[in-house]
Amino acid sequence: MVSRIVVALGGNAILTKDPSAAAQKKALEVTAEQLMPLIKDNDRQMVVTHGNGPQVGNLLLQQLGSDSEKNPAMPLDTVGAMTQGEIGFWTVQAFTRAMANNGLERYPVISAVTQTLVDENDPAFKNASKPIGPFYTEEQLPEIKKQFPDWELMEDAGRGYRRVVPSPKPLEIIEAKAFGPILESGSLLIASGGGGIPVIKDGNGYKGVEAVIDKDFSAAKLAEMVGADELLILTAVDNVFVNFNKPNQKKLETVTMAEMKAYIKEGQFAAGSMLPKVEAAMEFVTRTGRPATITSLENLEDFLNNDSGTKIIP
């Protein structure tokens, strides 16, 4: 019996200190090779989704830097689509190469530029919270605010200041109904990159909105809609911790929904970093009754062999 897993990669896992296309493509090639053990035994099908926060921010800066009447800067939803396309292209190439290297070249790799339906009345539109783009030091803030007076900036988990934009919750992956035949063909699917392009209903169609959807919440929705048996959220640490960086720090391994709810109530997880991942994982478990794991790419072998990582169960 072949199981199905959705793997969520962070945008920061793609963008290294070198922001060039060549460097990002190389980073994805390394990542794709690291993920091959998930599917090498042909007993698991993988759907990949990814973040794009750094890429969106950088591309927006490029757009604004060359903004003119003849060459106007594109809006945020369009920039999201552009980065989803470029990262999807790089990811297809990386996984095609990795699968060929591991004797799995018979499986095609497909990237789909996807839209994500949101509620136009979502309170997130009145409370920008999603960081995008590069980090700025406190000393750089006056110049950034002078250059971009409309930006909202927020301190991001002790790493500096970043621009923040609205981040509404995903209601539906518009194209998900078409993914069934693609997955049944045995293809490796890359979808909902950067959380998908946020859209609202517009008569008989949809229109894009100025926002960025959290890729982990989108991954949870994607995993639900493609009938995944498990959601795997990859981040910088092997496990989620409670009492983080304190003498009584404890890593979480297999935990129930009730335990996680209690930890959230205690304020154990930072709002700008681990909390969205935990909440997204819990959302998948709640809606499907299936497990979600949060761990690092480096811990993948131990995850496969020993069920390592923080696994949330009903």
Automatic annotation (TrEMBL):
Pathway involvement of the protein, from the record: Metabolic intermediate metabolism; carbamoyl phosphate degradation; CO(2) and NH(3) from carbamoyl phosphate: step 1/1
Family annotation (Pfam families): AA_kinase (PF00696)
GO biological process, one term: L-arginine deiminase pathway
Keywords carried by this UniProt record: Arginine metabolism, Kinase, Transferase
Domain Aspartate/glutamate/uridylate kinase: 4-296
GO cellular component: cytosol
GO terms assigned for molecular function: carbamate kinase activity
Similarity comment: Belongs to the carbamate kinase family.
PANTHER family linked: CARBAMATE KINASE (PTHR30409), CARBAMATE KINASE-RELATED (PTHR30409:SF1)
Name assigned to this protein: Carbamate kinase
Source organism: Lactococcus lactis subsp. cremoris
Encoding gene (name): arcC
